[in-house]
Specification:
Layout (H helix, E strand, L loop, with lengths): L1 E2 L2 E4 L6 E4 L1 E5 L2 E5 L3 H6 L8 E7 L4 E7 L6 E16 L10 E7 L5 E4 L3 E17 L8 E3 L26 H4 L4 H8 L8
């Protein structure tokens, strides 16, 4: 069986849901989740500068992250396990600013998200998982930031019932101290020259 790349642009302009190239036979399979020319042919200019992986236990939440400087567009795929992955449009001049979309990414479905610059990204780990990131910019610690996972102005509906309830949540001290959407807008005032 061969499944070719499928690119679907979301209603948050510039973000994509992608099914990678996937071929199987009697031996097993092959997944190709990035090809520069294929991405360009589908309107995505994504040149890799860094690839990394997160390994997370069930109940971990990693949200909602971005870099204030040296923005990182990311191609995100769950290699094993199951995560509820969320992207948020954080372009201040965007007509969809503050809107979020959520997707179940699993090792089995192989689906990916292309998260553009000036988007927040995070996920709730439903089953122990490994998630790969293919980033267009290297990690820049001084610009590392994010918005609280439970920010009321964004209102992400996390499926906590899938981990046994919110009381099972595992969250870092860093993520507990992230800013609000209002603080973000104050920081970005006059900074973001992001195209929509």
């Amino acid at each position: 069986m061969i499944q070719k790349f499928e690119f679907t642009e979301l209603d948050l302009k510039g973000a994509y849901h992608i099914k990678p190239f996937y071929a199987t036979d009697d031996r097993g399979g092959l997944i190709k989740d990035y090809n520069l020319e294929m991405f360009k042919a589908n309107g995505i200019s994504h040149e890799l500068k860094e690839v990394f992986y997160t390994i997370s236990k069930r109940g971990v939440i990693r949200a909602t992250h971005f870099q204030l400087f040296k923005q990182q567009a990311k191609l995100v795929r769950c290699i094993s396990g199951h995560v509820y992955d969320v992207i948020v449009d954080l372009r201040p001049d965007s007509p969809t600013f503050g809107q979020w979309r959520g997707f179940h990414l699993t090792g089995d479905n192989t689906e990916m998200l292309y998260v553009p610059e000036y988007f927040g990204h995070g996920y709730l780990v439903i089953d122990d998982s490994i998630v790969s990131y293919k980033a267009s910019e290297v990690f820049f610690g001084e610009g590392d930031s994010g918005i609280m996972y439970d920010d009321p102005d964004i209102g992400i509906q996390w499926p906590f019932e899938l981990i046994g309830g919110k009381e099972k949540l595992i969250i870092s001290e860093k993520d507990l101290a992230l800013m609000s959407t209002r603080q973000y807008l104050s920081k970005m005032s006059g900074v973001c020259n992001c195209e929509v």
